[in-house]
Amino acid sequence: MVALFFLSIALGTAIAGWLAQFYDPQNEVPYFSSLGIAAMALGVLLLLVARPVLNLMRGVR
Questions:
Q1: Strands (E), the chain
Q2: Considering the entire predicted model, what is its pTM?
Q3: How many CA atoms lie within 13 A of 20 on its CB side?
Q4: CB 36 within 8 A of CB 19
Q5: What integer pLDDT is reported at residue 61 of this predicted model?
Q6: How many CA within 13 A on the CB side of residue 11?
Q7: Average pLDDT over the chain, rounded to an integer
């Protein structure tokens, strides 16, 4: 579990570093708009996938 925790932090840091190259202080709106839209799309995807995953996990302890 601890390894997965550190892996998630490493992945988040790597993605943040990669996304930083697209930031332009002169024009911030497209950068933050695309990040917001991507976050909302991922949230909707997680909501759609949560119920089937919970059904598959029934009986697992």
A1: none
A2: 0.69
A3: 6
A4: no
A5: 77
A6: 6
A7: 94
Provide the token pair at 31. 């950068």
For the chain, give every domain's residue range: 2-56
DSSP 40-53: HHHHHHHHHHHHHH
CA–CA dist 35, 41 (Å, integer): 10
Residue type, 45: L
Contact of 31 with 23, CB cutoff 8 Å: yes
Residue-level pLDDT at 45 = 97
Task: Report CA 5 to chain centroid distance, whole Å.
Answer: 14
Which residues does the chain have with pLDDT short of 50? none
C-alpha 45/C-alpha 14 separation (Å) is: 22
Q: Supply angle C-alpha 47, 53, 57, rounded to 5.
A: 145
